[in-house]
Design goal:
This protein has 367 residues and is α/β, with parallel strands linked by helices. It has 2 domains: 2-254, Alpha-Beta Barrel (TIM Barrel); 303-366, no CATH class. Helices cover 41% and strands 23% of the residues. The chain has helices at 29-43, 47-50, 69-82, 102-111, 125-131, 140-150, 171-180, 198-204, 213-229, 248-255, 281-290, 303-315, 328-337, 351-354, 357-366; strands at 2-7, 9-10, 22-23, 53-61, 84-95, 115-121, 155-161, 185-190, 233-236, 239-241, 259-262, 267-270, 273-277, 295-299, 321-322, 340-343, 346-349. It has a 9-stranded mixed sheet with strand order 9-10-8-7-6-5-4-1-11, with helices on both faces. A hairpin with a 2-residue loop joins strand 9 (233-236) and strand 10 (239-241). Helix 4 crosses helix 6 (140-150). It starts with a strand and ends with a helix.
Length: 367
């Protein structure tokens, strides 16, 4: 089983972010850990959790690196005391470069953390300012050096592509600088305009114009080529890894494995049911203190929904999907356009196909 812990606290909200976050100058670490461990104790009664070996633990956010090291250790110690951890358990923390210090990195190592996902997004100072990021471009390389010096050699870097052309961002330079840092993993996400974000407000009043489809596709394919030449495997729509460095936690979502989400807005999938928690931190905390339910909603997928989800999850990774699960006329069209390959009975999308993933799956749904 896999465990996700949502840490909502941030120093500021990024311009594109619609995640569940709580901007705080001082992180309420003790309140947060108390609430997480209370939810964890309640989850131990779930049938899948009761006998689980924990394969991966992922602290996401928000900005988990705003928690002190002892808070991370307290959570991990309790999980390990209550359930067996896999011998090669993968424990990841998302971090901002400006939070990294030798003391914090060493505390993570002592707690058992062995993988860091670093929120770089860009190496261009103008772009970082536009994104409302809290770190500076020159802090990235020292942060990675500090993490490695502490003994964590599995580092992932996040990048965002598809920015408005008015920024004149040099995407090739960002990719080249990222490769020069020699991360073990790169996650690359296309910018989307989400409601109720600064980016949405800028777009509504015409202050920015979203990138065109041609440029969006060109940047995606450019990174695919550059990272491939540098030895990274493009193993999922948004993810690249050196050999042996795929994110096992993320793969659990794509393979349909059971996972437990703790914290505000966290999602879970256990025993055939999917549910999600109260989104806002303060409401989540108050419900936890009062002993009230933390779930905000739940669902059980129909067989038809499960079938479409299997198609979507299978096509978004290099694992692919058995040809027999797809309509023959669609397969023929995809192969003809170069959007997919067929090998030993498996359909796998190409990079060109991944650009069209949502549209291709929607065709399956109506077939």
């Amino acid at each position: 089983m896999h465990v996700y812990i949502h840490v909502p606290f941030c120093a500021r909200r990024c311009s594109y972010c619609d995640f569940s976050i709580a901007v705080r100058s001082v992180t309420p670490a003790n309140d947060f850990v108390d609430a997480i461990l209370a939810e964890w104790r309640g989850a131990l009664a779930q049938p899948t959790v009761a006998d689980a070996t924990i394969d991966t633990i992922y602290f996401g956010g928000g900005t988990p690196s705003r928690l002190p090291g002892e808070s991370i250790a307290r959570v991990l110690q309790q999980v390990a005391a209550d359930r067996q951890l896999a011998d090669d358990v993968e424990i990841t923390i998302e971090a901002n470069p400006d939070d990294i210090t030798p003391e914090l990195a060493n505390a993570w190592v002592r707690a058992g953390v062995n993988r860091i996902s670093l929120g770089v997004q860009s190496h261009d100072p103008r772009v970082l300012e536009w994104m409302h990021r809290s770190h500076r471009a020159e802090q990235v390389a020292p942060a990675m050096a500090t993490i490695r010096a502490a003994g964590i050699d599995n580092i992932s870097v996040d990048l965002i592509f598809g920015l408005p052309e008015s920024l004149q961002r040099d995407w090739e330079a960002d990719v080249v600088r990222t490769i020069a840092l020699q991360p073990d993993h790169v996650s690359m996400y296309g910018l989307t305009v989400e409601p109720r974000t600064p980016l949405a407000r800028w777009s509504e009043r015409g202050a920015i114009e979203p990138v065109g489809e041609d440029r969006y596709a060109a940047e995606f394919l450019h990174a695919h080529d550059f990272l491939g030449q540098a030895g990274y495997e493009h193993y999922e729509v948004s993810n690249y890894a050196r050999p042996g460095r795929r994110s096992r936690h993320n793969q659990s979502y794509w393979s349909g494995a059971p996972y437990l989400g703790l914290g505000p807005s966290a999602h879970s999938f256990l025993d055939g049911e999917r549910w999600w928690n109260i989104r806002e931190w303060q409401r989540y905390l108050e419900a936890s203190r009062a002993g009230l339910p933390l779930r905000e909603g739940s669902e059980r997928l129909t067989e038809e929904q499960r079938a479409i989800e299997r198609v979507y999850l299978g096509l978004r990774t290099v694992a692919g999907l058995p040809e027999a699960e797809l309509p023959p006329e669609l397969v023929s069209g995809w192969l003809g356009h170069g959007w997919a390959t067929l090998d030993e009975g498996l359909i796998r999308l190409t990079a060109e196909g991944w650009l069209r993933l949502d549209a291709l799956v929607s065709r399956v749904a109506v077939s």
